[in-house]
Amino acid sequence: MFAINETEFGWAEIIAAAQSWCESQPFVAEIQASLSCLRCAAETGQGLSAQAVKEELTAFRYAHNLISADETKLWLCRWQMPFDELTNYLRGKLLRQKWTDRLNEIIAAHPVSNEEVTAVFRHHAICADKLGDWALKLAGHAAIAAKSGSFDVSGQSQRLLAPRDLVAYIETEFERERRQIITPKLIETKIADHRLDWIRFDCRCLWFADERIAREAVWCVTEDGLSLDEVAASAHAEIRQWNFYLDEIEAGMRPHFLAARPGDLLGPLKLRKAFPLFSLTEKKMPASDDPQIRQRAEQAILRGWMDQAINERVKWMV
After folding, report:
1. I need a labelling partner for 259 at 20 to 30 A (CA). Which of 128, 243, 244, 274 fits?
2. Which among 105, 122, 135 is positioned nearest to 37, based on CA atoms?
3. Measured between alpha carbons, how far is 88 from 119 in angstroms, rounded to an integer?
4. pLDDT, tens only, 56-90
5. Which positions ≥6 away from 96 have C-beta within 8 Å?
6. For the chain, how many helices (H) and strands (E)?
7. Pairwise CA distance, residues 156 & 5, whole Å
8. Are 88 and 121 in contact (CB under 8 A)?
9. Does residue 318 carry a pLDDT above 90?
10. What distance in Å separates the CA atoms of residue 199 and residue 201, rounded to the nearest whole number?
């Protein structure tokens, strides 16, 4: 996947890193669920329509910039992946979504062995973009380790290490560097730089598929004096809690929330082909003593730090 100086990092090192970060096991459980669903569909005949699979494949291709059939074939060839493996991944994903309410029952009734998971793990990791995410994270950590100078990732002794041991060396050095670089003062500076982006909004949301009905609901609240709960009961709809930071919503919606105060009713706003109403219950400015904000700041610092190290030291091979 990539190299730093004379040391190459491939599948074995990336999986060892994912395991050390405790990120591979949840993905294994996801694969097991997919395979169980595929087995259930084959045994019961309750599969997916060809149209549903075709639409999911089209969405996958466009998400990965595979516009033409030739581009898709080249992508499959590059990853040495049969077309059936891609469609099986997509079918398993769709079936998990379709049967989410009875997933545990299906997994129990259609057990999958570790060998079966291992056989498809690589292809699923590629299709789910896990392999790319893990490779990028490891590249950042390894580049920082090499940049520090106290750990020579290109040294002969390191290149002869087993993948798990090499990753352990890299993580130890990366953590040492992280503690030195990310200081309380730097975190406070980063928070100040994002004082608008990281405003937190706690809202109660009522979703409508039709804009006209959504506007009638607003009228019922503002003019008739009904509560949002009463409007929801009348519309046979459910009020949902939605907490988010300003930079997590679409840019066109942000001015509405920036100008709002707790207690305001916002909407209807166009979002995801629907027209939700938002009752703002809390608006919280970012503060340095907020653990979630400090975590956001640390992650932002790490991303910039790793991006720079990757640009300076990593040579991508795939």
Report:
1. 274
2. 105
3. 13
4. 999 999 999 999 999 999 999 999 999 999 999 99
5. 30, 33, 34, 37, 103
6. 15, 7
7. 11
8. no
9. no
10. 7
